[in-house]
Amino acid sequence: MKGRPLGPEAVLGLLEASVVHREGALLALSKPADLPVLGRPGELSLTALLPALRRRLGLPAELHVVKAPARECSGLVLLSACPRVTEQLQRSFTAARRRAQFPATYSAVTVGIPAEAEGEISVGLCWQQKGDAAAVVAVPSPGRRSVARGEVKCTLTRYRLLGAAGGCALLQLQPRTAFPEQLQVHLTLLLCPALGDHRHASRVGTVLGEPFLLPPQETPTPCTQVLDAELMSRLQLSPHHRLPLHLHLQQLVLPHTVLSAPPPPHFLRTLRLLGLPSPPLPPH
């Protein structure tokens, strides 16, 4: 079960304390998991807190989000107080991906260990309606027309195993493309869903201890990720505890600097309890 949500003042305090870079029009901080960038009406969000954060930090101009991880993820948020700088940085990220570079590096704790110590996941992704909700699903061999029409996007993530213990792993992930929930789906295709992924982890089943991938149509409705009793015990969790997603945007490579942010407390606690190493900063 999740704890009581933090109020605006408490979240503002967290954001202010998590500033990792401040130079000219640029500000970088580390966002906690489960804080949306753009929230639903009446919901606490990063964007809604930016005016108050600007006042707290004594910044003269309005802040804009340049790059940020999804709601469920923790990690680096890049903010700018200058529209021209915002546009230049967004163009630089697009150009880097076109040059086959990987400007963003994530760390993830997974339930399961990939068969290969490093590699790439390359697959088409699309939105698919499932009942009243839409879900992101893999399209292993997308047709040229569906890609050209924008119905399917070809996605690529590079991964590397940093450590393994107790059936879990610490992975470094570098996406070259951007699609909602891309990393969670790619980890599921590796049969190693992220710890705390309550949306896609149910696609990985087991038979006689061996993991396999369930077809999307046979996947149960998203629910709390099911962990075995031994892992629950190692993580010191009660049966109804709902873990946050262990997916952290750790590093961003900018044209003239490299930004990094350490994982949040829940992530570090999991690494300690599982006996996994702390994620090193990748070379750039």
TrEMBL record:
GO molecular function per UniProt: pseudouridine synthase activity; RNA binding
Domain Pseudouridine synthase RsuA/RluA-like: 26-187
InterPro entries, per database record: PsdUridine_synth_cat_dom_sf, PsdUridine_synth_RsuA/RluA, RluA_PseudoU_synthase
Gene Ontology terms: biological process: pseudouridine synthesis
Designated name of the protein: RNA pseudouridine synthase D3
Gene this chain is encoded by: RPUSD3
